[in-house]
Amino acid sequence: MVIFLLFLLSMNDENQLKISKSIFLIPMFYIVIIWFIYWIEIQYGFNFNKFGVYPRTLEGFRGVFLTHFIHSNTNHVFNNSIPLFVLLSSLFYFYKDVAYKVLIFGGLLTGFLTWLFARESFHIGASGIVYLLFSFVFFSGIIKKHYRLVALSLIIIFLYGSMIWYVLPIKEGMSWEGHLSGFVTGFFFAFIKRNKGIVKKEHEFSRTEFDLLFDDSGNFSPPEIVENKENEKRVEE
Asked: Which of 31, 128, 189, 220 could be 182's S-S partner, Cβ–Cβ 3.0 to 4.6 Å?
């Protein structure tokens, strides 16, 4: 489905947007990594939860770098995998100029904000990245006012709009703080990167012969007609 949507949004866009296999490499690689880490936990009986974010402690600060790769159970990692693939593909396709910065620095800032104000508990999962990407893709399209990006924003809100409720403490055992951190970070990056990548082009009007009849102030000022002196010559017999 995501490939079909990218194809529709890229049609007739003057080659600015081209679908290639490379835009899916990072999403697939990230998903393989989180599933592999979870498999190691199950296979060898490890528990990596302690490597998540534990707010306002020095040991818990390591979770800022590790939390996005750790999940509590199969449903947790599965529920994050699909939106991660869709949103990461959208990021690297439509915002390839800033994609790595948004993903890396945005992920770190999301983890840091979670460490800074979240309740005292281990916060794990790639949900912060999901909310980061959701927020960035949605707000970037609105801020840039590029019609294809606005269309993408509407598609994203249609697919994942219900996620917005989970930035509030409405479900027990869910890190709403991590969701909120990702959402705020995504908006922040959408704003500071608003002039990067695809932007709306201002329409330029070309001057016509009719426009030449007026000066820069809009006053009627037709060009002077220079008579051809050669036509005025009389041939004397």
From this structure: 128
Higher pLDDT, 156 or 53: 53
Cα 218 off chain centre by: 43
Assign 3-state DSSP to the chain and report helix, strand, coil percentages, each to 5: 65, 0, 35
Residue 136 CB coordination number (10 Å): 30
For the stretch 112-133, pLDDT in tens is 999 999 999 999 999 999 999 9
Is 90's pLDDT higher than 70? Answer: yes
The letter for the amino acid at 212 is L
SS3 (DSSP) at 103? helix
Contact 136, 102 (CB under 8 A): yes
Alpha helices for 161-201 (secondary structure H): 176-192
- Whole-angstrom distance, CA of residue 5 vs CA of residue 104: 25
| 204 alpha-carbon distance from chain centroid | 28
Residue-wise pLDDT tens digits, 204-235: 445 566 556 556 665 656 666 555 555 555 54
Amino acid at 112: F
CA-based nearest residue to 136, from 76, 74, 196, 77: 196
Q: State residue 54 phi and psi, 5-degree precision.
A: -120, 110
**How far is it, in rounded angstroms, from Cα 36 to Cα 72?**
13
Which residue reads 């970037």 in tokens?
140
Place of tokens 């609105």: 142
